[in-house]
Amino acid sequence: MNKIKCVTIFGTRPEAIKMAPLVKELEKRKEIDNKICVTAQHREMLDQVLQLFNIVPDFDLNIMKTKQTLTGITNRVLQGLEEIFEDEKPDLVLVHGDTTTTFAGALAAFYKKIKVGHVEAGLRTYDKYFPFPEEMNRKLTGAIADLHFAPTTGSKSNLLKEGVSENQIFVTGNTVIDAMRFTVEKDYKFSNDELNTINYDNKKVIMVTAHRRENWGKGIENICNALKRIIDENKDTEIVYLVHLNPVVKDMVYKILGNVSRVHLLPPLDTKETHNLMNKCFMVMTDSGGLQEEAPHLGKPVLVLRNVTERPEAVEAGTVRLVGTDEEKIIKLANELIRNPKEYDVMSKAINPYGDGKAAYRITEAILQYFDLAKGTYSEFKSN
C-alpha cells in the first residue's frame, strides 16, 4: 500500500470542531489521501466551523430538512454515502463521537466492508436513553469500528469491558483541546456588541447552554427558574444564556428569563466566539457534552445540568460536578461557587484529563501504524 485512501465524515458543529484538527493533520501526511464528506445534519452551524478552519469538503450531502427526524437523517446519510463509497473505494472511513451522522456513516461503511475509525470512542453512561440518541449512536458505532481512538484511559477501559481487542484501541486525548489552540485569543472582541459591554473582570459571568432532548419540558423549566433565583440572590452575577433555536427550548427560556435584569439571552455563537466567551466567563452551566471537556481546559468550573454523564473523568478530577435539573440543587451548588472562593479554586485549578493538544497527531500516527506505514512509535496519552 503506497497511500491510505481515507474518507472523513462529519455533519454537526460539535463533530466539525473536533474533526478539524484531525483533518489538518491528515493533510500533512503524504502517506494519506483524505477526502472530506459533510452530511450537513446541521447546515448553518457546520458551515461556520468549515469557514473558521478553512476546510472545503470534497462531498456535501446537504441532508438537513426542517423538522427532520432521526429516521430521516439516517436514511439520507446512508443513501448519500453509498454512491460516494462505490466511487472512492476508501481503505478507511473516519467518524466522530455520537451523532446520527456518526452511526449512519459507520453503518454505510460496514455495508461496503470498509474499515471504520471511531474518533472519541468508548464514552458511556450505560443508559440507552440518556443522552438520547447519543448513547446508542456511540455504542452502535463502537460495535462496527475497527479502530477505536479513545480520548482517555477510562474510555479505553469501557471498550475493553465490551470485548474490544486492546490492539484496536488507541488512547489519544480529545481533539477538542487541539482545536482550542486555534480559537482562543487574548483580548478577544466579540461580533455581538452586547457581549462586549459585559464587565467580565468585576462581574461573575455564568455561561449557560441547555437544550438536550431529555431536558425538554420540566427540565428546562427548572433550569430557568433556578437561573432567575441565582441572579436575584447574587447582585454581582450576570448570565449569558446561549439559547438553542428549537422552539421547544426557546419559548420556555424566553417565557421565564426574557425580562430578567442581568440575563443576556443570545442565539448560539459560532465556535470561536463560544470558546472566547468561555475563556472570559466565571463558570459554565451546561447540559452539553463537549463543554465538559472544553471549559476545564480554560480553568472554568462546570455544573452539568444532567443526571448522568459519559465523561466521568472531569467529575473524578474535580473540575466538573453533576447537578441534574433539580431547581434547589442547581441553586445550592451555583451559590457555593459564586460565594466561596475556596470552593471555586478547587474546581478551577483541577487538572483537565482530556488532552494536551496532540490528539490529532496521535490518531494519525495510529492510523499509519495500523496500515504498516508508521515510521515512529506510537505513544499513548496519559489521562490520569
Key terms:
alpha/beta; Rossmann fold; 16 helices; globular
Order of helices and strands: EHEHEHEHEHEHEHHEHEHEHEHEHEHHH
Q: Report the radius of gyration as a whole number of Å.
A: 21 Å
Helix content estimate: 40-55%
Summed up, the domain count is: 2
The CATH homologous superfamily name of the largest domain equals: Glycogen Phosphorylase B
Question: Can you describe this structure?
Answer:
Belongs to the UDP-N-acetylglucosamine 2-epimerase family. Residues 24-367 form the UDP-N-acetylglucosamine 2-epimerase domain. This is UDP-N-acetylglucosamine 2-epimerase (non-hydrolyzing). This protein is of the alpha/beta class. The chain has two domains: 2-173 and 354-369, Glycogen Phosphorylase B (Rossmann fold, 3-Layer(aba) Sandwich), CATH 3.40.50.2000; 191-347, 3-Layer(aba) Sandwich (Rossmann fold), CATH 3.40.50. Helix content is 45%, strand content 15%. The chain contains 16 helices and 13 strands. The chain has a seven-stranded parallel sheet with strand order 3-2-1-4-5-6-7, with helices on both faces. Helix 13 (312-317) links the parallel strand 12 (302-304) and strand 13. Helix 1 packs across helix 7 (175-183), helix 3 crosses helix 4 (100-111) and helix 4 (100-111) runs parallel beside helix 5. The protein is globular and about 65 Å long. The two termini are 37 Å apart. The mean pLDDT is 94.
